[in-house]
Design a protein that fits this description.
The protein is of the alpha/beta class and 244 residues long. It folds into 2 domains: 151 residues, Alpha/beta knot, CATH 3.40.1280.10; 69 residues, Trp Operon Repressor, Chain A. Helix content is 33%, strand content 18%. The chain is built from 8 helices and 10 strands.
């Protein structure tokens, strides 16, 4: 599999440099699993002051990111056949683990547009295939959300994490939260490792872990648990075909 190309259009590209030395993510970049390219719209500004923002039409507080430098920056970036342009925005769709897996597997290039200041000219939205939000809150720019997505996507690329099964059993991979984990010692300050995990009965361990996943999800994320229950209630694909 070829390297995943990640292009980031940002007024503060230095915010992404720590990713290159961040544990398994940094090693993935060093190994060529992914490659990071940073683009500053200031380098594409049209005036000698490298102006990238202006006051909004109609008045209002703050400054708005101008469209010309952003368009010029995007148009200067090479285009791979399978590219997706993601706009970081608190108005976007909430980020889900399924999105990270889709972007990690279906595309060869992800391009991130990071807003700044009060916002961006509405016409910049036309560049994006998707608008993404990491939560119902507002930050000073799209750099942190983009870094979150880069981290989540790169760790799903083959070769980043040693054992692929680790990615399949974690929280949100199938709606349920992950089960509890324990290691030595078996007893610590009066807290005991559940006996089933020391039993050697792999069937019983699997049943206990699933039960713990269901219980933990129901308690902590009832919204996810309700979705999981709906999914379990759906007939299997074979049954659907039999009824046609």
């Amino acid at each position: 599999m070829s390297a995943l190309r990640l292009d980031v259009v940002s007024l503060v590209p230095e915010a992404f440099e720590p990713l290159l030395g961040l544990g398994v993510i940094g090693r993935a970049f060093a190994a060529g699993i992914a490659e990071l390219h940073l683009h500053n719209p200031r380098d594409f500004a049209l005036d000698r002051y490298r102006k990238v923002d202006d006051v909004p039409y109609g008045g209002g507080a703050g400054m708005v990111l101008k469209p010309e430098p952003v368009y010029a920056a995007v148009e200067a970036i090479p285009v791979l056949p399978r590219r997706r342009v993601l706009l970081m925005s608190p108005q976007g769709q909430p980020l889900q683990q399924a999105d990270l897996r889709r972007w990690a597997t279906a595309y060869d290039q992800l391009l991130f547009l990071c807003g700044h200041y009060e916002g961006f000219d509405e016409r910049i939205r036309a560049l994006a295939d998707e608008e993404v939000s990491i939560g119902d809150f507002v930050l000073t720019g799209g750099e942190l959300p983009a870094a979150v997505i880069i981290n989540g996507v790169v760790r799903l690329r083959p070769g980043t994490v040693g054992r692929q099964v680790c990615l399949e059993e974690e929280s949100h991979s199938a709606l349920l939260l992950e089960h509890p984990h324990y290691t030595r010692p078996a007893s610590f300050r009066g807290l005991e490792v559940p006996a089933v995990l020391r039993s050697g009965d792999h069937g019983a361990i699997a049943r206990w872990r699933l039960q713990q996943q269901q219980q933990r999800t129901a308690e902590r994320r009832p919204d996810l648990y309700a979705r999981w229950q709906e999914l379990q209630a759906q007939p299997p694909c074979d049954s659907l075909r039999d009824r046609r």
